[in-house]
Write a structure and sequence with these properties.
Length: 517
C-alpha cells in the first residue's frame, strides 16, 4: 500500500514527487488534450450517447421483459438507477479532487495502488473495446435491414460497418467538439421520437388505445415475477456508458463541478427515460400476456417497440424511428470510440502502453493515435467475424457487448473500493462519511455482487447457456487482469519514476502527494 498526505492545492510539487515529475518522458504541458472544450451538456451528450437510449428501449428492454421479470421491468429500472446514483456519490466525490482521462484506471491506481491500477487499465481496454466493436454488429444489421426494406438495396451488413468505421475514425481523429456537435443532433433526435411515442400512449391510453394506464408495474408482485436478477443485469447493461464522465475531465470546463453535474444529470435523465418508457410499453401491450407476446416475436424481439409505434404513431413516424434506431447505435459507437481513444492516450502517457499513444495531435489536441489504434483493432475483429460467417447480432453484438458490460461492472466495483481507500488516506479532503465511506462501500458490495452473478449467468445473457463461450468470454477479463498486472510490474522494473506516478497526472491541480508502492 502507499500513503498520502494533503497539502495546499496551490503549492508547487516539492521533494520526491517534484523530482519524479521532472524525470518523466512526457513533461507536464506537452501532449495535453484540449482543455475547457466541454461543458456539462457536452459531457452529458457523450455519456447518454454511449447508453444509447433508443437502442436500449428497442433492443434491450424487450429482451429484459422476456427473460427477466416481464411487466416489472420499469420497477427494476428504478432499482438500478438508485444503485447507480449511490455509486455516483463516491465516484463524483473523488472527481472533485482528481482529474484524469484515465477514469477507472486512474481511480483504482490512486486508491488501491499501482498493481491494481494496471489490472484496471487492461480490463477497461477490454470492456470498452468490446462494447464498441460489438455495437458494430447491431449497426450493420439495422442499417442493412432498413436499406433493403425501404429501397431494395441488398448490401451485406459489413459494408455499412466499414462506412461507419471510416466516419467514426475521422471524427475521433479530429477535435472533440466536432464529435459533440454530431452527438448533440443524434441524441436529441432519438429522445424526441421516443418522447412522441410516450405522449401518444399517454393520450390514447393503453392496450392499443382506450384503456386506462395501470401502475401495476410498480407493485412488488410484478417486480418479483419471473427472474428479477436477470432483469437487473439487462437493465444495468442499458446504463453502461454513463460512468464515462470522468474520461473527459481533462477537457472539461471547471471539471470539479462539471464532471459531478454531468454524472448525476446522465443517471437521472437515463433512469427517468427508461422507467417511463418501459412503463408505457407495458401499458401499450397490456401486462397480461406481455411475455408471451414478446416471445412470439422471437428471434427479433426488438420489433416490439416498432410494433407499438406502428399502432400509436403510424407508418411514417415508425419508419423515422427505424432510421433513428440505426443512428442511435452510431452515436453509441462514436461515444465508445472516443472513450477508448482516451484510455489509450492515458495509458500511453503513463508508460503502460507504447509512449506514442500518449501524444496528442498538434492541431486538434485529440488522442489521434489512440483513435487510429481503436479503429484498426475494430477492423481486425470485425474481419474475423465476417470470415467466420458469424451473425452480426447473435454473435458479434451479443457476445461482445455482454462481455463489455461484465468488464465495466467489475471496474465500477473496483472504483468504489478505490474511492473508500483514497479518502481513508486523505481524510482532510472531505469530512462527509456518506460520500467518502458509506456510499462507496455500498457500491462496492452491490456492484461486486452483480458482477459475480452476471459471470455465473453469462451463458443466459448471451443466449447460449451450454456453450463454451459461457465461461470462455468471462475468462478474458481474468486474462486482461493478468496482462495488466504484468505491464505494471514491467513498468516498475523499467521506469520506477513513471510507476510511482501511475494514475497521478497533474498532481499540482489535485493538491495531493502520494508516495508510490
Amino acid at each position: 500500500n502507499h500513503a498520502g498526505v494533503v497539502r495546499d492545492a496551490t503549492a508547487r510539487p516539492v521533494g520526491r514527487e517534484s523530482q519524479l515529475m521532472s524525470s518523466t518522458n512526457t513533461p507536464q504541458g506537452e501532449h495535453q488534450l484540449r482543455k475547457g472544450s466541454l461543458g456539462v451538456l457536452g459531457i452529458a451528450f457523450f455519456v447518454i450517447s454511449a447508453a444509447a437510449p433508443l437502442t436500449a428501449m428497442a433492443g434491450g428492454a424487450p429482451v429484459a421483459m422476456l427473460l427477466g421479470n416481464g411487466a416489472g421491468i420499469p420497477f427494476a429500472y428504478v432499482i438500478v438507477a438508485v444503485l447507480l446514483l449511490i455509486f455516483a456519490v463516491g465516484y463524483t466525490a473523488m472527481a472533485r479532487h482528481h482529474t484524469s482521462t484515465g477514469a477507472f484506471y486512474s481511480y483504482v491506481a490512486r486508491g488501491l495502488g499501482q498493481r491494481a491500477g494496471g489490472i484496471a487499465a487492461l480490463i477497461a481496454l477490454l470492456g470498452y473495446n468490446a462494447m464498441q466493436i460489438g455495437l458494430y454488429g447491431l449497426f450493420g444489421a439495422a442499417a442493412s435491414g432498413f436499406m433493403e426494406a425501404q429501397f431494395g438495396v441488398a448490401w451485406p451488413w459489413w459494408s455499412y460497418v466499414l462506412i461507419a468505421g471510416v466516419i467514426i475514425g475521422f471524427l475521433g481523429y479530429r477535435q472533440v467538439d466536432l464529435s459533440v456537435k454530431v452527438l448533440g443532433v443524434l441524441v436529441a433526435a432519438e429522445f424526441l421520437i421516443v418522447v412522441v411515442l410516450d405522449l401518444a400512449v399517454i393520450i390514447k391510453g393503453g392496450q392499443g388505445g382506450g384503456a386506462g394506464l395501470s401502475m401495476s408495474s410498480f407493485s412488488m408482485d410484478s417486480l418479483m415475477s419471473g427472474s428479477l436478477a436477470i432483469a437487473l443485469l439487462f437493465n444495468s447493461a442499458s446504463f453502461i456508458g454513463f460512468e464515462a464522465t470522468t474520461i473527459y475531465s481533462e477537457e472539461a470546463r471547471d471539471p470539479k463541478r462539471t464532471v459531478p453535474r454531468a454524472t448525476y444529470a446522465a443517471v437521472l435523465t437515463i433512469g427517468l427515460f427508461y422507467t417511463v418508457t418501459t412503463w408505457l410499453m407495458v401499458n401499450a401491450q397490456g401486462a397480461d400476456g406481455l411475455v408471451d407476446h414478446i416471445g412470439g416475436l422471437t428471434p427479433d424481439p426488438t420489433a416490439f417497440l416498432f410494433e407499438i409505434s406502428g399502432i400509436y404513431l403510424g407508418e411514417l413516424p415508425t419508419t423515422i424511428m427505424t432510421v433513428l434506431f440505426a443512428t442511435s447505435v452510431f452515436a453509441a459507437l462514436l461515444a465508445f470510440h472516443n472513450a477508448v481513444a482516451r484510455y489509450f492516450f492515458a495509458l500511453g502517457r503513463e508508460g503502460l502502453l507504447p509512449t506514442p499513444l500518449g501524444h496528442t495531435h498538434k492541431i486538434h489536441l485529440s488522442p489521434h493515435k489512440g483513435s487510429v489504434s481503436q479503429s484498426v483493432l475494430a477492423l481486425v475483429v470485425i474481419v474475423v467475424f465476417i470470415v467466420a460467417g458469424q451473425d452480426p447480432v447473435l454473435a458479434l453484438f451479443t457476445w461482445l457487448t455482454q462481455l463489455g458490460t461484465l468488464a465495466i461492472l467489475v471496474l465500477m466495483a473496483l472504483s468504489s473500493a478505490a474511492v473508500t481507500a483514497f479518502f481513508a488516506r486523505h481524510k482532510g479532503l472531505d469530512t462527509n462519511p456518506w460520500r467518502t465511506t458509506v456510499a462507496p462501500i455500498i457500491g462496492t458490495v452491490a456492484l461486486g455482487s452483480v458482477s459475480v452473478y452476471a459471470a455465473s449467468q453469462f451463458g443466459v445473457l448471451i443466449g447460449s447457456p451450454d456453450s463454451p463461450l459461457a465461461w470462455a468470454l468471462p475468462s478474458l477479463i481474468v486474462v486482461a487482469a493478468l496482462v495488466g498486472l504484468a505491464l505494471a510490474l514491467r513498468l516498475r522494473s523499467t521506469s520506477p519514476e513513471q510507476y510511482a506516478q501511475m494514475g497521478r497526472h497533474r498532481p499540482s491541480e489535485v493538491g495531493l502527494i502520494d508516495v508510490g508502492e
